[in-house]
Amino acid sequence: MPEQAFVDRLHEQIGYEFAASQQYAAVAVYYEAETLPRLAAFFYRQALEERNHAMMMVKYLLDADVDVRVPGVAAPQTAFADVVAPVALSLEQEKRVTGQINALASLAREHGDYTSEQFMQWFIKEQVEEVSSMSDLLRVVQRAQDNPLLAEEFLAREAIGDGGGEDPTAPEAAGGAI
Q1: What is the residue extent of each domain of the chain?
Q2: Which fold is adopted by the domain 4-157?
Q3: pLDDT digits (tens, 9 = 90+) for 87-117
């Protein structure tokens, strides 16, 4: 069974992952309302990915025979000053999550909870890709601020943030990945 300190922090992280999912859904809706369908699709995918991250954590706790709490989340930001602001917010969110994930791995290691530490390794790898793809997208959207259709064209051309498909090393999600 994982250390209680790790369990408590992982429950918090489940909330953060669900909040990230909600924020990405709100960003997707913003872009869809702006008739930027590729940006919207990118963020709808991100919303599902973050939801699945939360469900991977839920599954880990279920498998460890821990009572799981699914925390509520605050309402996401839905209004933005321009087409750059949602991506800038998303990059900051990914950087914050990276710190949270690293802290979870560190906590597991401090307590000699090597099973939980190993579980967190996939998320550490995932965060490198998340920060990289969001940084790339931010640079593109900043350059295309006056003509966001150029960002749409970039997303049509490039496979940014898709991770190359299914990752067979990913932890199993509770309920299966959707």
Answers
A1: 4-157
A2: Ferritin (1.20.1260)
A3: 999 999 999 999 999 999 999 999 999 999 9
